[in-house]
Amino acid sequence: MKAVCIIPARMGSVRFPGKPLAPLLGMPLVLHVWNRCQLCQGFERVVVATCDPEIREAVEENGGEAVMTATTHERATDRVREAVALLDLSLTDDDFVLMVQGDEVLMAPAMADKMLATFARGRPPVVNLAARFHRIDDYEDPNTVKVVAASDGRALYFSRAPIPSRARTTDFHAFQQTGVIGFSWSFLRRFSELPQTPLEKTESVDMLRVVEHGYDIRLVFTDAETIGVDTEADRARAEKFLRTDPVTQLYLGSRTV
User: Fold this and answer.
1) What residues in the chain have per-residue pLDDT under 50?
2) Do 43 and 100 contact (CB within 8 A), yes or no?
3) Alpha helices per DSSP H over the chain
4) pLDDT tens-digit map of 166-194
């Protein structure tokens, strides 16, 4: 089984324009993500997919690999699909493509390893990392996507509402959908062709299209805190985590001090 990691990133974020190049500990955000993914030994290639020359230049100047994609993509999955095609990776249908959104700054090699192992065991069409909430504010924030699962780890539903409800108990764990999503190469191609679905549109969550069309999404759970950087406040909070994170020191060393 081949496995590749594609990191979609663009400058035109509505909530945080230019965030891929926002500095954390003196390094652009997208380069933290690239370095952290590069530490996983299971990938043949780790490539940033972008439509912005300044992102490509920043990645390549720091020893990374980037590929230019169209400016017209509305979804990260479409950008990832184009990137794989442009790179001519000779993937077979059952090979694995891991999409790591370019703002998932606390992505860790152990998370990627679990994603790879879960896919290798059963070859599900989609594997999605789900991170336990550590702050009630994040659980209640409509900008964060929550996910609930069946006992076997299949995703049942994604919502911007706080699910599961804590109206009758305070003893529960809630999980956030992250932008770390893996696909079989055959399903990534098929996903782009599936029509959008009512719940996908209502919740504005792409992965509900998979669920509504009857395909399985296998969740990989982590208790580690994750931060998808969407605002300046997220950037500042993530920078504090990175300063003491042992993974950061593997690629930044003494510069984290």
Assistant:
1) none
2) no
3) 29-38, 53-61, 76-87, 109-122, 136-140, 185-191, 198-203, 207-212, 232-244, 246-252
4) 888 877 789 999 999 999 999 999 998 99
CA distance 33 to 50: 14
Contact 155, 244 (CB under 8 A): no
Q: Report phi then psi at 42, rounded to 5.
A: -85, -5
Q: Which residues pair with 148 in a beta bridge?
A: 157
Predicted local distance difference test score (pLDDT) of residue 149:
97
β 45-50/3-9 pair status: parallel
May I ask the CATH architecture of the domain 3-256? Alpha-Beta Complex (3.90)
Q: Where are the domains of the chain?
A: 3-256
Tokens of 52: 């912005």
Q: What does the alpha-carbon distance between residue 214 and residue 92 come to, in Å, rounded to a whole number?
A: 23
Peptide bond into 17 cis (omega under 30): no
* Cβ neighbours of residue 26 closer than 8 Å, sequence gap 6 or more: 255
What length does the chain have?
A: 257
Q: Closest Cα to residue 1, out of 49, 44, 40? A: 44
- List, as one string, the DSSP characters of 152-183: TSBEEEEESS--S--SS-S----EEEEEEEEE
Structure tokens at 93: 């249908």
Largest CA distance in the chain: 53
Integer Cα distance of 210 and 206 in angstroms: 8
